[in-house]
Amino acid sequence: HFRHRQRKDSSDEFPEDVKRLIMKLLNFYTEQNQKAMGLVAGEIVLNLSSASGHRSELVSVGAWLRSGKTGGDLMPAIRERAASDSSFARPLAGLKHAPLIEPDSRIFCVGLNYADHAAENNLPPPSSPIFFSKLASVVIPHLAAIPKPAVTEQLDYEAEFAVVIGKRTDR
């Protein structure tokens, strides 16, 4: 068994003029089991990959992020096309999510990075950061079953995700 933590949607805290600019993107599998990029609009998902004519910049969230300004410049027109044609809409409920991360991605992690996490594990907070990496192949999509090896007594999870897009940072 593992603990579920309820989190509210952080976009609820933004002013209305900012909310208009927020895009909730995901990767999902089409009926043909092809990976596609979607835009969540309430209880539906707009297939941006199909709306773009399957342009390489919009086959997945990762491809779009890597495409930089080219993908960014394409997005308004593709989003408008997808929103104006119901053939690009799919119900969010029952959608088969695909991993958000690309197979060649690098995952760098920091362990016991806050006092409560150390306390949960009955460990003292470390005197310096504990860094480790994970393979992209261990990432599962949203709502997918978590495989449990026979030697594992209890599953636990924790996920934190940060992306810096287009700006250099010193942290």
Q: If you had to describe this structure to a student in words, what would you say it looks like?
A:
The chain is an alpha+beta fold and 171 residues long. Helix content is 22%, strand content 18%. It has a 4-stranded antiparallel sheet. The protein has a two-stranded antiparallel sheet with strand order 5-6. Helix 3 packs across helix 4. It is globular. The model is unreliable at 1-7 (pLDDT under 50).
Strand content: 15-25%
Please tell me what the overall shape is: globular
In whole angstroms, how far apart are the ends? 35 Å
> What percent of the residues sit in helical stretches (DSSP H or I)?
10-25%
Number of DSSP E strands: 6
Structural class: alpha+beta
The major β-sheet equals: 4 strands, antiparallel
User: What string, H for helix and E for strand, traces the elements in order?
Assistant: HEEEHHHEEHE
Please state how the strands of the largest beta sheet are arranged side by side: 1-2-3-4
Low confidence ranges: 1-7
Radius of gyration: 19 Å
Report the total helices.
Answer: 5
Overall pLDDT, averaged? 83
